[in-house]
Amino acid sequence: MRSCSQNQMSGPSTTSSLDAARGGVRAERRAARPCLVCGAHGARPLHGLRSPLVRCSCGLVFVDPLPTEREIAAREDDAFHGGLRDETAEMFTAYYRNFPDDPVVRGFRTTAAKLHALTGGGKLIDVGIGTGLLLHLAGEAGFHPLGVEISAGAAQKAHEEFGVEVLVGDFMTADVGEAPSAITMADVVEHTHDPRAFLARAFELLRPGGALFVAVPNHRSTLFWAADLLVRIPPLAPMAGRLYVPNHYYYFTPSTLVRLMEEVGFRVESTRGESPYLGRYAFSAPVRLGLGALVALGRATGLEARVEVYAVKPG
What we know:
The structure is a single chain. The chain is α/β, with parallel strands linked by helices. The protein contains 10 helices and 11 strands. The chain is globular and about 50 Å long.
């Protein structure tokens, strides 16, 4: 749950605005850059030549060309200051100090408990803090929490609501002090300019035996299957923007995410799918009905909308 997009249920109202938000694409594409995961060339347009999205044969989908790191940072701060769809913004404000006891909160408690079981506690760094709720719950679970957040507004609000300590700045260069026992990246990696470097930075910072939690939208899911169909039907194409949001630059499958984490040095302990809790979004009845059916199908088939990975730094 993060301020920048709030998972995979927000986005622009049209696919053309999605193209514009990502800087546009030419009618005749140049060759895409090599795949971040497998290094292969030849990624192909996902939704036609005008799409900013390409898919590699390994399964990774990514935006090409990428915006600059400065542009990415500006978009994240803009998202916190009102750049969210109404249904998502309403959900986001629900997870401050008067947060409900719902599946989102219980999921965060489970994450904190699993990381404590893997590490025995100690310092936990949450990268991309959202409301600060995960930091707060990690403290309740016995960790010494510290946030790293690129949006100064989000950091200030989290401190006001929960009293948590948050460093404002880029995780790649932030001085976090002593080596942490755990790092969490919930709905963050897909927003970064270079996920490989981002995960390698986590590996570098963690103490030996420390644990990393990563959660991202799962492109090998029924929700993205439906979006890839809708985008080819002009009257329905705008609905695909609820999944292909303009500040997601990478779309992983379970296998591509695990491969990347292992290649930077982690030992993956567990991988699981997760279905989004639709109760936190203010959708219209028809949209809620359609999404509910897709989520239920994903749960039944193991093609859930989100993938979570727990991994350990050997040592």
